[in-house]
Amino acid sequence: MAKQTFVPYRELTRIDLPLLWPIAAAARIGEAGLELYAKNLRFIDEEIKIHHPRRPELATVNRIGLDLRTMALRDYSTVGATGLPTIVDAPYAGHTSAIADYRRGQSLIETLLGNGLDRVFLTDWKAATDDMKDLEIDEYLAELNVCVDELGGRVNLVGLCQGGWMSAMYAARFPHKVAKLVLAGAPIDFDAGDGPIRRMAHAYPTAFYEELVALGGGLMRGTLMLRAWKDMHPQQHYFQEHVDLYHRIDDLTYIRDAEAFANWYESPIDLPGRWYLQAIVQLFKENRLVKGRFVGMGRALQLRDITCPVYLLAGESDDITTREQLFNAEKYLGTPKDRVEKKLVPGGHIGLFMGSRTLAQTWPEIARWIAR
Length: 372
Fold this sequence. Notes:
By secondary structure, the chain is of the alpha/beta class. The protein is 44% helix and 14% strand. The protein is built from 16 helices and twelve strands.
């Protein structure tokens, strides 16, 4: 029997006989169906990866200088470095410190090292465990002080977001230990501006936040905080990001970026309940820091005791920390006005720390300012 030969269905579109046009049409529909099926499978696979991510990893080579209860102090210093140490005080707001060392080519740590700073350290804050639920802000300030003393007793501090108000507290408590202070996206005057975080802090009674901590067994669960962040922009997080992913499922650069961000954003960490409630009540509700009524390590802290050079960096569209919450710090600092630098850059909150444009255009300038 003669061997049968089959014409590939892609070739059927070239057949000119009207009798065979329906076959060609059916073949095209089948091909499109297979492609659509494959696309849907890729979409489902990416949805699983993005919403069940790996724990984020730090991008730049480092070693652990100190392993403390609240953090690991990461040492990124170059071999033989002798400059004044710079500690990046990362946010402690429900996500890991990897935002400061996000990935190669998009890392604040990498940027600082490449622009004149050779001794750079990072507070890699640990997720709170059950035995940490009663820790207060004092314990975090005390361990930051251990780090500073370990590095020689005088440092530059770069405070990001919640790490910023902690850095300001530390500089007010130990002004002689801080040579220069950078505050980026950091709320200092918590009552300033009209951001959603400020409104939420005042809209709900303290009992509401106490109940959240009780639900977490004495911890403020990172999953609850993540839900709250997403609820600030529900259209984006619960609808648009899924649509964007589907339409760009074949864009490998987009997929790589989405997976990297999800590894950080979708991996929340828990906070000590007592620490969280202290921040909500004494800072966000009562604004004690600028009023000189916040007690840190046994002393009412006065921002006017900070007299070192200060750099304030805010985002134009930052709705987590409004520019007023940061820039108003200038009113309370003891630093002379001509030694306070202020810069407003395009973009939102997270972009201040790992946005490509800010890392390329603004942080090199800040690094050189620190190194002067």
